[in-house]
Each structure stands twice: as structure tokens, then as C-alpha cells.
């Protein structure tokens, strides 16, 4: 199945950073299907020289030249005005990849070579066009940039996520999707509808490298994608009479508003999730950010605590244990002393009757203690 360019760029940056930190783990992810189905070309944007024809060689090239990190950005984060390169059609609507280097950083843009008309053959052709139509052919071109041009790689901002997500949760989740979206966000199903729209297999899509479903950005991003998928499905579904469901029809403008908001911010979310992969852990954030219904989380937490308490009595809260009344303690102490005294006297005088009385007192004391301890 075909992947989309932004998926391959996300994978390249995420896994590329993992490789730059530890080149020995290349084989662990390079066999992934998303890389096997791609035939990328990496060239110098000035000389047009071929630098690499595969992800692995390109990453090796970057490492040899001292590149320390990769990051994903929108095209216009760097180029505020249109960029023109001879014979190249630059795709300004795609992400660019920044290779961070202390002395000479560079940016890799996506561009396609313009067709050239061949007078001898009387037809147009594209230089270096691939004959492998079944593969994804991505053409990256390297341009040098100044260090001050690189956007600051801001850490994941709680406010920036909360602003969008809280609106989703309040306006849509609470009123319409309380049960529908309450899924386990550590599940592969979180990749959801966004990838189904592109007819891409769940299991073929690369997780953010090193996250193992534990990176907060990828979790929240995927949950929001899932929610957007449900919105899209409901807006386009019709009942058996081929008429819009009345409730959905009334809410269509609202749904459209939030879907448009999501689309406008989708690139920023992708960049933030990719550039923060493996750095920001999910546990660093409060439960308010989880897309699962908070009521379900509360109920599950309460049940888990009850089960834990039943298995481990020592883990019960201190205030749950009833304190023993001091008079009860004093009475038990007196009975115990009386019992010991009678036993000693009976043994010393060899009096069986006193021994019998001592045993009887002991039985009564134990019975009383059992009754008093029953409601602790």
C-alpha cells in the first residue's frame, strides 16, 4: 500500500535521529515497509550532484559530515518569499527537513525537475525519472542556510496542545463522543482514520522511533486524528432514506469548524510530535490531556485501588483502620495478668480448681477479644 510523503518524512526524521544517536540500530528499522517501498533521491540544489539514492546512505552521509540532529518544519518557516531554482518545481506545500550542524546547517526541500523537450526524440522527458512506478520517488534537494535562519526547536508547549485539544474535548467529545472515542491510546488503533483515508495499513505505518507508544506527542496527535476521523465519518454518513440525520445536520457547521481548525494546525502538530519524539514522556502530563473519558479513568482508578487494597491489607489508608478504645486495652491487660497470676498460684499450691478457673478466664478473655476485634 502507498504511504504519503508526510508519513515518509515523519519516519525519516524520527528514525534518522535515532540513527544519528546510535548508528548500530539501523537494521532494526531500515527494513520497515515504508522504507522498502521508497526510492528517494538526494541531490545538491546548486550543483545537482547526486549525494545519495537511499535513506541509509543519506543518513551515513549526514553523520560523516557532523550532522547532530534532524527536524521537520513547514516550508515557509524558512522561506518567506518564493524560491526559484533553475529547472526545479519546488513543492512549497510539503515539509522540509533541517540537518542541524554547528558550522553549516542545511535544509532539504522537496522539488521535482521540470520536463525538458528533446528535439531529437520530439518529446519531453524528465531527467533522472525513475522507471520504478510502483515505488515512492521523493526528490530531496540540499540548500545551505544560515544558523540564524533555523527556527528555534521549542519544546512541546502544554498550552499549544491544550488550546486545540480542550476545544475538541469540550465541544465534541463531551457531547457526542463520550463512549465512541474512549479507546486505549496505547493501542495501534490510535493511528485511526487519518491513515485509513490514505488507504495505508495500520501495521505498516512507522511509530515514532523510540517512543514505543510512550511519547506524549504521538499519543495525543493520534487520539486527535482518531477524533477527526469520527467527525469526518459522521458528516458523510446518511441513513437508509439517504437523508442526513437531523441531529448531525444541525451540528454540521460546528463539526466543519473544528475539522478546519484541525487541518490548519495539522502540520504544526506533526512537526511538534516528530521533533519531540522520545523526549517528552506521556507521564509528564496530567490526565486531563488523555482523550479517554475522564469518568472512565476515574472509575478504573477507583476499581484498581480497591483491588489493590483487597490484595494487600497493609496498603489500606490509615484513616480506614478503627482505633481501639483505651478501656478495652486496659481490660484485656487486666484479664491477662489475672490469668497468669492464677496459673502461677495453682501450680505452686497444686490446686486443680484454681487451674480450671484460670483456664476458664483465659477462654472468656479470648472470646471477648474476638468480639471486640470483629469490627476493626
Order of helices and strands: HHHEEHEEEEEEEHHHHHHH
Question: Averaged pLDDT, please?
Answer: 61
Number of discrete domains: 3
Oligomer: single chain
User: How many helical stretches?
Assistant: 11
Cα-based radius of gyration, to the nearest Å: 34 Å
Roughly how much helix do the residues carry, as a percent range? 40-55%
Amino-to-carboxy terminus distance: 65 Å
Using the alpha-carbon principal axes, give the shape.
elongated
Describe the main β-sheet briefly. 7 strands, mixed
- Stretches where pLDDT is under 50 for at least 5 consecutive residues are 154-162, 172-218, 279-323
Query: Which structural category fits the helices and strands?
Result: alpha+beta
Which secondary structure elements does this structure contain, and how are they paired or packed?
Layout: H1 5-21, H2 26-30, H3 33-36, E1 41-44, E2 50-52, H4 55-64, E3 69-74, E4 88-90, E5 95-100, E6 106-113, E7 116-118, E8 123-125, E9 139-144, H5 158-176, H6 192-197, H7 216-236, H8 246-275, H9 294-311, H10 326-349, H11 352-373
Parallel strand pairs: 1-9
Antiparallel strand pairs: 1-2, 3-5, 4-6, 5-6, 6-9, 7-8
Helix pairs in contact: 1-4, 1-8, 5-8, 7-8, 10-11
Describe the protein:
The protein has 11 helices and 9 strands. The chain is of the alpha+beta class and 376 residues long. The chain folds into 3 domains: 145 residues; 150 residues, no CATH class; 48 residues. A hairpin with a 4-residue loop joins β7 and β8. α1 packs across α4, α1 runs parallel beside α8 and α5 runs antiparallel to α8. The longest helix is centred in the C-terminal third of the chain and has 30 residues. It is elongated, with a radius of gyration of 34 Å. It starts with a helix and ends with a helix. About 27% of the residues have low confidence.
